[in-house]
Amino acid sequence: MTGQIIQYVLTGLTLGSVYAIVALGFNIIYNATEIINFAQGEFVMLGGLFMVTFVHSLGLPLPLAFPVAVAAVTLVGLMMERLAIYPLKNPGVLTLIIITIALSILVKGLAMFAWGKDPYSLRPFTGDKPIPFFGAVLMPQALWVIGVTLVLVVLLTLFFERTIIGKAMSACAYDREAASLVGINVRRMIMLSFMLSAALGAAGGILITPISLMEYDRGAMLALKGFGAAIVGGLGSFYGAVAGGFLLGLVESLGAGLIHSGYKDAMALVLLLLVLFVKPSGIFGQIEVSKIKKF
Amino acid sequence: MGRNNLYGVLALAAFILVFPLVRRFDSFSHYLDIMVFVGLTGMVTMGLSLLMGYAGQISLGHAAFYGLGGYTTGIMTAKFGLSPWLALPAGMLISTAVAVAVGVPSLKLRGHYLAMATLGFGEIVFIVFNEWTALTSGPDGFGNIPRLSLWGYAFDTALANYYLVWGVAILMLIFVLNVVNSRVGRALRSIHGSELGAMAMGVNAAKYKVQVFVISAVMAAIAGSLYAHFVQFVNPPVFSLFFSIKLVMMVVIGGMTSVWGALLGAALLTFLPEWLVFLQDFDILAYGLILLLITMFLDKGLIGLPEVLYRRLVRAAGREG
Amino acid sequence: MTERRNILEVTGLQMVFGGLVALMDLDFAVPQGVIKAVIGPNGAGKTTIFNIITGVFPPTSGQIVFKGRKITGLKPYQITPLGVSRTFQTVELFGHMTVLENVMVGRHVRSRRGIISAGLRLPVMRREERAIREQAWACLDLVGLADKAETEAGNLPLGEQKALEIARALAAEPELLLLDEPAAGLNETETAGTAALFQRLRDQGLTILLVEHDMRLVMDVSEEVLVLNYGRKIADGRPEEIRSDPEVVKAYLGEDIEYA
Fold first, then answer.
1. Which C-chain residues 114-153 have CB contacts (< 8 A) with chain B?
2. How far apart are CA B271 and CA B38, in angstroms?
3. Can you give the pTM of this predicted structure?
4. Phi, psi of B153 (to 5 degrees)
5. I need a surface site. Which of B248, C33, C235, C260 has the fewest CB within 10 A?
6. Contact yes or no for C223/C34 (Cβ under 8 A)
7. Domain residues for A23?
């Protein structure tokens, strides 16, 4: 029985890593722009599918295909921002939400056009020999997922706290007017935030495809749960995104295993709703922050 | 409600009355069915446009309220043999309870919290429809839902349902137009204009947002019940996330700030699949593109198009003159 | 001067925003039926006081008592029905609504009909609508905007927008009217007209608390003046007294408070 629980925990942490990555992507864009990007999940989907194409159709070796796929999705993120966000003058936040929804539908449609409706799989990075672990088994790919996620968090934190560009983006999060007054090109920061989020999402998608496959319409549920993770952890907080992601993944996995698997999606969502209703600022968030943000 | 709106209502009522008399074309019964769906969808979009255009909030789970109405009616009439006139208010009550439970906490916060809360709750309801097979018969759905009957008269034909649905829809239209042109409607519009100013004038923004959310949920529930009686069958795919998003699209494309826009959007997007049949599955590409373009360039929706064109014309005339 | 009851009493008011102390140890009162001005250099905390009194945010500590009733910590929509109404430094009108509709929203706290009676257009609702409309017209007449009733509020020039805000605030039937820089951006004629309006309102029993930079207006209409600097009270008394107060002069050093 303990073995089973540990198995669920491992699965939960793996799932949670992907949710954490999506949540991180949400936070980056939200911090720079106060926009909730409903198309965030599509970046994950595209990452996985582009990777499949580069590896299987073009025969690129894995270490080369990875950055190329991430670059491709980053380009998509850039195009999204330039074509649909940048041209707007003073959009209301309701408008922005609808635009990101429209973008997610559009991207999903294009993905269906390019890849069809079938799920695709990817070879695991370092083989698929399961590693025994306290009565459960750990897939090597899961280690990749969890490991890379933690590395990304550290890199992101360093980026936002130590580099000039990162600090500029954080400045936009605190006060956009003040940031532009000290010479930060806010428009460019917004563009960068979309690119960075896209890259992150792509990485997550590539990591998870060997485990749970990838198909054109996975984006919406991923976005929903990733956003749930972001809210649970506290919108705008990186550590919150990670904590929220792991928490959501654990709830889903344990719920599916111990209670009822059909309702597994519902459980993560119920957690999201509970957090929204009881402590909407999340674990690491502050109430003032969520009230000052304009929408 | 204003003279223009009154003329609009009368014109719509006249059109609805007259439309079935034009039986000439052979796919008439098919179009009659579509018109019933336009009416049902219009009920949902009218409530949604109150929420989006006037209360400035977005719900990505309104299909769930539609579903709650439909399934409550279906379960109570087909599975338990109760009267439809009991099931209808039951569906409305359940929707009210859910809307209050979801809306009160979310509407105190900023807008995307409601968007996500409704998205989440919409998905939960959809999952319950699929998984609670004992009550809902799961993914296959169930039928045998009786047609509505009132004082012995059974709404048995498509035509009877057409008039029933549109009768209710027009009553709802009048209700919504009245609200918009009232103290409450002004309070809602004032929140848009300046939330600070509105609060200073004593408008309790959160309270009104919840009330509008509940009303929009109840309207959707009524539509759902009527849907169940018309199609006599319910199954989960009708009440999916994609339908919720389609509803939002209808409101945005038709025009958020106008109840007429909501009806226009409902009509357009219900007829659109007929015209886009050649696109097959790729119709979602068309939807996404249309939604994106309209949101970016025509923020009052299609109903605002005449005004935009008129202004362009005036400006062009001015330059040449 | 006869002893008057205080319509508003502020005690021990303190407001700290993060690291910034906006208001410190503030005590003052507003007697009923007077026009009292709050003056001070920019950043002295004047608008913050208004925001606290009207419930936009609660103070870090301190009490606000209005007509003998504690209103500290109440929300704006709870305070306005009690008889406090305000205007804003940056005009907060409902730009896309007409002038008349803006004032009708001012009647919100003096009317009751909700969504259901509105949707069904019950007779009781229609009667209330008529009353709201009539009273809104009356307020427009008072500020001289009756002829612009159907104009979109956002299209008015600044002076008329400020007048509209006052009309809207009056529609709520306040006993205490808070005006935040009502003369900012107005020319001399407009300012004089505004001053006359205030005096008319005061004569009808309204108490007015105003934040102003226009010293002529302040000295002309106020019966009491509160002077703030860096969030603290440095003087509180009749205009003649504070004009010659050395602390006040020092605070305004560099600013011209001499007037004809």
1. 114-115, 118-121, 125, 128-129, 132, 153
2. 8
3. 0.85
4. -85, 125
5. C260
6. yes
7. 2-278
ipTM confidence score: 0.86
CATH number at residue A104: 1.10.3470
Q: Tell me the H-state helices in B75-204.
A: 84-107, 111-131, 133-136, 158-180, 183-193, 195-200
Q: Closest by alpha carbon to B288, among B252, B235, B239?
A: B252
Centre a 10 Å sphere on the Cβ of residue C199 and count the other Cβ atoms it contains: 14
**pLDDT value for A286:** 58
Percentage of residues in chain C having pLDDT higher than 90: 59
Residue A31 lies in a domain: yes
Structure confidence at residue C3 (pLDDT): 57
Is B179 near chain C, with CB under 8 Å?
Answer: yes
Q: Could you tell me the two tokens for C71?
A: 């209103």
* pLDDT band at residue A171 under the 50/70/90 scheme: confident
Residue B112 · residue A224 · CB < 8 Å: no
What pLDDT does residue C77 have? 92
Task: From residue A108, give the alpha-carbon distance in Å to each of A27, A39, A218, A224, A241.
Answer: 22, 9, 9, 15, 25
Give the count of domains, chain A: 1
Is A269 contained in some domain?
yes
Check CB contact under 8 Å for B193 and C95.
Answer: yes
Cβ atoms within 10 Å, residue A178: 11
Which of A252-256, B99-103, B112-116 is least confident?
Answer: B112-116
SS3 C228: strand
Is the pLDDT at C225 greater than 70, yes or no?
yes
Residue that the structure tokens 């590693």 belong to:
A131
Number of domains present in the structure of chain B:
1
pLDDT at B150 over 70: yes
Q: Nearest CA of chain B to the CA of C81: how many Å?
A: 7
Q: What residues of A are in contact with residue B241 (Cβ under 8 Å)?
A: 220
Distance from first CA to last CA of chain C, Å, rounded? Answer: 26
Note whether B155 and B147 are within 8 A (CB). yes
